[in-house]
Specification:
By secondary structure, the chain is α/β, with parallel strands linked by helices. It is built from seven helices and ten strands. The strands form two sheets. It has a six-stranded mixed sheet with strand order 6-7-8-3-9-10, sandwiched between helices. Strands 2-1-4-5 form a four-stranded antiparallel sheet, with helices on one face. α3 packs parallel to α5, α4 runs antiparallel to α5 and α5 runs parallel beside α6. 40% of the residues are buried.
């Protein structure tokens, strides 16, 4: 089953002479439980695509379906709620709340949504990611790799339809990057989680189930299905 699909997705910025086709008719399908890496150089459109997939920006034309829901047909408030419940984000900069400890950061999206925290599930995630002993630590007392593990746990906590990872190891050294990405893949398989990651790093992309290349706003290599 396709949990994510784009249809002729287009995003334009600006006007002549500064007109930019950031996305130029992207068609992509991602199946439930898949780990897909979208690879492209700076300016290829990969970050714009990720923002479209997550409903962080609206398309010029085309559609994004998440679990069959056309997200661009949702009004802003409904889209915000949908995004919080159905899409988990892992960013390069971690985006942890500095005054909250590890556990509080992980469950924050659930509490904002008024949901009951599944403590057994959270414990499983933390054990898998190796951060159980950091449960009461503040982000400032963690290494970069540990902070990114917390960010992954937070993204998994709400059991979203899809996790979107934006250059998630960009601030980490190569060894820590491979460790963190390996754990992202492990947790994805363990919890049957769908993951779409953008990266410029071909080596990191090899950890995914499928690699899709984007260039000048178009999918040019790999199987967009």
């Amino acid at each position: 089953m396709n949990v994510l699909e784009t249809v002729e997705l287009v995003k334009h910025y600006g006007k002549e002479p500064n007109f930019v086709k950031a996305l130029d008719g992207v068609n992509l399908k991602v199946e439930q439980g898949e780990f897909v890496a979208i690879v492209g150089t700076s300016g290829s459109g990969k970050s714009t695509l990720l923002h479209m997939l997550g409903g962080l920006d609206r398309a010029t034309s085309g559609n994004v379906f998440v679990e069959g829901e056309d997200i661009f047909k949702l009004k802003e408030e409904a889209l915000t709620i949908f995004r919080r419940r159905k899409i988990g984000f892992v960013f390069q900069s971690y985006n942890l709340v500095p005054v909250l400890n590890v556990y509080e950061n992980i469950v924050l999206p659930l509490e904002l949504d008024g949901n009951r925290v599944d403590t057994d599930f959270i414990r499983q995630i933390m054990e898998t990611l190796g951060i159980t002993d950091k449960k009461n630590s503040l982000p400032g007392n963690l290494s970069g790799g540990q902070q990114q593990r917390v960010a992954i746990a937070r993204a998994l906590a709400a059991k979203p339809a899809i996790i979107l990872a934006d250059e998630p190891t960009g601030n980490l050294d190569s060894r820590t990057s491979m460790d963190v990405l390996g754990l992202l893949g492990v947790t994805g398989k363990q919890f049957n989680q769908t993951i779409v990651m953008i990266t410029h790093n071909e080596e990191i992309a090899q950890l995914a189930d499928r690699i899709v290349h984007i260039e000048d706003g178009r999918i040019v290599g790999g199987d967009g299905k």
